[in-house]
Design brief:
Layout: E1 4-6, E2 18-19, H1 28-53, H2 59-71, H3 80-109, E3 115-119, E4 126-130, H4 134-144, E5 150-153, H5 164-167, E6 172-175, H6 183-190, E7 194-196, E8 214-217, E9 226-228, H7 234-243, E10 252-256, H8 260-265, H9 267-275, E11 281-287, H10 296-303, E12 309-314, E13 328-332, E14 335-338, E15 340-344, H11 349-362, E16 372-377, H12 381-392, E17 399-401, H13 410-420, E18 423-424, H14 429-436
Parallel strand pairs: 4-5, 4-7, 5-6, 7-8, 8-9, 11-12, 11-16, 12-15, 16-17, 17-18
Antiparallel strand pairs: 1-2, 3-10, 13-14
The structure holds iron/sulfur cluster (SF4) (2 copies).
One iron/sulfur cluster binds near residues 199, 379 and 382.
Amino acid sequence: MSAMFCDQCEQTFRGTGCVEQGVCGKSPNMESLQKILLYGLKGMAAYKHHARRLGKTDPVVEEFFEEALFATVTNVNFDLESLLDLVMKCGQTNLRTMQLLNDGHVEVMGKPAPVEITEGIQEGPGILVTGHDMVDLRDLLDQTAGKGVNVYTHGEMMPAHMYPNLRKDPHLKGHYGDAWQKQLREFEEFGGPIVATTNCVQIPRPNNTYLDRFYTMRVTAVPGATIIPGNDFSPVIKRALEIGPLKPTKLKKSTIGFHQTVLLGLADKIVEAVKAGRIKRFLVIGGCDGAEPGRNYFFDYATNAPKDTVILTLGCGKFRIRNFDYGTIDLGGGVVVPRLLDMGQCNDAYGAIQVALALSKAFNCGVNDLPLTLVISWFEQKAVAVLLTLLSLGVKGIKLGPALPAFVTPDVLKILQGKFDLQPIGQDGRKDVAQTMGIA
Ligand code: SF4
Ligand code: SF4
């Protein structure tokens, strides 16, 4: 018997949910588009939440949330074309939402700039901050100033160092850790208190001992950790001083902070380098990381890309590819940049879009005619919102992995592939990048 595809209302089939065709007439394809819309809204809600905390809102975004959620209520919308239009409109509204968040970050935290950071734990007491919320970090830095407590970013908080109003604090010592799926071990080894401002958090295992120094903000929560309702970090600071100096680790340096404002500032040089053939292709490799097998595809793809390619990365997917020496590329006029350009958090996909739009204007062609390939790793709903934004801009040929979303039915996938040539990643990143570059 086919699997149940919807259980949203009372008139389910024998009370167990509808299979094959809904009692109301809804088809699995309609439910699939409604799910894509709902998951896009969830992702957008996270960005909207951060933007609001930076003082940025837009009634147009609010209005769309109502409209889109209403469209998924039972017996409201049974038309695939109309649902697909709403899915695309969700993409456009997420573009506006990411713009609000970008503008909020730049206005409140300052204009980003490339910066060399120190990775690893240093002498003294310390607090680790993970998640995505820069306002929490700003508040914590204010409250720890002069207290002899160091602050470290973890995971997706690494881009915080590119903002002058955050890195101005000398006790923002550096970064510790990798992508979210390694936190059970990393939080254990860190030794000091951890503050999770948003996802992704994991539920500590019974053998984990850090619950009594694990704090979460607002709606972020795991059983046994302490929720901080407002922005009073005094319990965390008290715990850090109680624990005392952390065990220092080996230190290393890395350069991050190639925010869109930085790259747009280099636009002329970048265009020149493309025209001169020093840059043959831009590869956007990033998004969400995760523990599933098959994600090494992204490492193989990036590390086997020829030297005349530039790799733009963002989101925690960067941790899958960043521990490799990609070398540098000469933009001309004495300007040399790393081949791997870290643009920031998953929401900084907005920046990658602005760079692509600027290049398409400079070369007087469409984004799909640029020497540009998007190899996107997804995991959760923010990545769905970003994907819908890219599709709503008409971006074609996106490679998506490690697997295509299970909530997309084969018929709906056919529509998306027909319209946008959306492709699942292959098995072999080396082979695929050679194909992309036409050297296979
Ligand atoms: S909304 Fe339609 S498909 Fe879903 S459970 Fe109700 S009757 Fe079934
Ligand atoms: S980029 Fe996505 S998967 Fe990674 S930490 Fe953020 S929300 Fe989680």
